[in-house]
Hints:
Oligomer: single chain
CATH class: Alpha Beta
Radius of gyration: 15 Å
Low-confidence stretches: none
Mean pLDDT: 95
Amino acid sequence: MEINSAAPVITRDEILIDAPIETIWGIQTDVNAWPSWQPDVDRAQADGPLAVGSVFRWQTAGLDITSTVQEVDVPHRIVWGGSAQGIVAVHVWMLGPQEDGVLVRTEESWEGEPVNAQAEALQPALDGSLRNWLENLKRAAEDSVGPTTRH
């Protein structure tokens, strides 16, 4: 599954993380722990490990979001989608080992009536949200392994 490349709001971003891929994957997919390292997430709840068809609920920026996992390739790729207040989102995460760490790439598309009406305002909001998420993921992963056990 891919993002909707025709959606009015699309963000793509990436970051290099100096930690083992398994560490990054574990942090990213432990939904219940998101609020502990991701300040933008107010609440998050999943019942068990993420798998295709898993549903998890979380709150960010005042939005209550229900997401469903669409695709999982441990520890390289996870895709989830969902809707909140008329915004339909598809979010893809890809982790790829590099010589100097793990390249984490993410892309997300937003569509729906609220997006059509406010695309110019929502684009920078999604850009900033994903940039913050990546930077917080990097910090959490690198802090969890320390400087001597990285990749």
